[in-house]
Amino acid sequence: MRSKFLSVLMLIVLLASAACTPAAPATTQAPTALPPTVTPAQAPASARTLTVLAAASLTESFTELGSMFEAHNPGVKVTFSFAGSQQLAQQLDQGVSADVFASASPKYMTAAVTSERVNQAEVQTFVKNRLVVIFPKDNPAGITTLKDLAKPGLKLDLADKAVPVGQYALDFLDKAVKDPGFDPQYKDNVLKNVVSYEDNVKSVVTKVSLGEADAGIVYVTDITADAAPKIGKLDIPDALNTVAVYPIAPISNSKNLDLAKAFIALVLSPDGQAIMPKYVFIPAVGGQYYHKIREVHFFRCKQLRCLHLKKWTD
Fold this sequence. Notes:
Blueprint: H1 2-20, E1 48-55, H2 59-72, E2 76-83, H3 85-93, E3 100-102, H4 106-114, E4 124-129, E5 131-136, E6 156-159, H5 164-177, H6 186-192, E7 194-198, H7 201-209, E8 215-219, E9 231-235, E10 244-250, H8 257-268, H9 270-275, E11 282-283, H10 287-290, E12 297-300, E13 305-308
Parallel strand pairs: 1-2, 1-3, 6-7, 6-8
Antiparallel strand pairs: 3-10, 4-10, 4-11, 5-8, 5-9, 12-13
Helix pairs in contact: 3-4
């Protein structure tokens, strides 16, 4: 009897002990940190690059236009290749990838059309320019008239005739020899003084400003804020000058054709044309230069959200 009582008592103690032992806490896995879900509408637009091939004389004005275009089009980077128009036309003929071509001469835009990189129907004139004679600020050759360019021993720097401004300089000399005020040998005597022919107009400005040449013939737009303190200038009268016409067009196989057309629209817009006189260009205003543009859009990347400009009439 006593043995049975002890067995029951031991069972009760064991049960009570089990009941009082705290249960082991359940193991829970820490939540995994997940990146916030980005919906397509929230995702930033892919960066795009617009490549513009432009004549060297457009360096300052197009750099400002490029900044304006980037401000209108977040996510778009405008990259410029500035060089002589003949070099750019040659690059296009060789298949270089680009979106816009701006030439300092219709001749090289025609070359781009011939090589089928540009559609003739999309070519538009956007600005004009004219020639000027420049010389170092201290004027070591004592240049006071155009006739002084023929003085023996003068060091003259010109752009190569393949460069638009180089050909325009030769056109000026051709006009001068037909003018009664100039000697019939004027052109020949001037060309005897040429010490270097450059592959772009900026090189002429650089050499003259450094005093490596006594004079050069460039565009009036090349007398920039940086160059002006270093050089003097002598105007060429209208009768002897050449008004250079600058055409622009999108590249026909551009991978960013919407941006190319939008950039050209900016250049032709009132805002774009207002920038050009700051750099002494002659704006190409008027119906024939707008080629009946009725409406343009500034595209914002791939969303194609548009900032409409006012419609223009002829």
